[in-house]
Fold this sequence. Notes:
Helix content of chain A: over 70%
Largest interface: A-D, 39 and 39 residues
Order of helices and strands of chain A: HHH
Largest sheet of chain A: none
CATH architecture of chain A: Up-down Bundle
Distance between the termini of chain A: 29 Å
CATH superfamily of chain A: Metal-sensitive repressor, helix protomer
Structural class of chain A: mainly alpha
Number of helices of chain A: 3
Shape of chain A: elongated
Radius of gyration of chain A: 17 Å
Oligomer: homotetramer
CATH class of chain A: Mainly Alpha
Number of domains of chain A: 1
Amino acid sequence: MMADSKTILRLLKTARGQLDGILKMVEEDRYCIDISQQLMATEAILNRANKEVLAAHLKHCVQQAASPQERNEKIEEFVQTLGRILK
Amino acid sequence: MMADSKTILRLLKTARGQLDGILKMVEEDRYCIDISQQLMATEAILNRANKEVLAAHLKHCVQQAASPQERNEKIEEFVQTLGRILK
Amino acid sequence: MMADSKTILRLLKTARGQLDGILKMVEEDRYCIDISQQLMATEAILNRANKEVLAAHLKHCVQQAASPQERNEKIEEFVQTLGRILK
Amino acid sequence: MMADSKTILRLLKTARGQLDGILKMVEEDRYCIDISQQLMATEAILNRANKEVLAAHLKHCVQQAASPQERNEKIEEFVQTLGRILK
Lengths: 87, 87, 87, 87
């Protein structure tokens, strides 16, 4: 889990740094289109973080489930998350 | 698998029917905002179909993998798909 | 408007062709991950069609509005559509 | 512009607060599915912020353009942004 959480923390800290920059851009009344682009760049980083989080879930919780029942529950839960992503 | 593919086929046929309707709307030069809304409704249906397809994959291929190695490969493959969804 | 609607019709017809292919893939019980990829490719085409539709709206209805009031109404309407895209 | 930027700043600050919470969740090794849900909630807020930024652009820069040429340029620029959102 350690390797995964390092990557995730790095992505989240990058996103937070960008968000601080965007707050400053809004306060300085910078050009809307530039602000919008920075927002989309930040969301792309959060999407990558989300992908890493969900990949870690599949690799750890689903792969290493103690029983088929437990694995089934983990998959069901994951499918619900997938439904929120693909809405 | 039968139950899943019935749902998926039903969603895809609904999407195709909507797409035919949108083609007609464009040919009849209907109002852009109405066309855009129908396009988004169709994409929402395709997203639901995609969720059902991926749920079927997790429930069948991942859950019923013959070995931990095979399960691992299926999960890796799924994670790549997740990366395309969350880009 | 003609040039725009030609592009939009071409994109929609491509999407419909792909959707027919996906229906066949599901009926033939093809591999889930391949079906999912084709679904995402089709959605990407519908997204491009939606972009063209909304660009046409901005270029025609907003740009050529008869009065500032009418332009304001068209922009408000567009902003509501934007809210549905960015939800 | 003031009213718009207040809303945008409020949304961005909320997103930053949530991101700090998510960083803590990852450090505390909290459950992946819960982290993923918080990430999606944060992205939904950034999407709303982006919608507000782009709405402000349309209402100010496009609506109040000094000439049809300037308005045309602003619309072209907006359409490019739309292409990035709908990719």
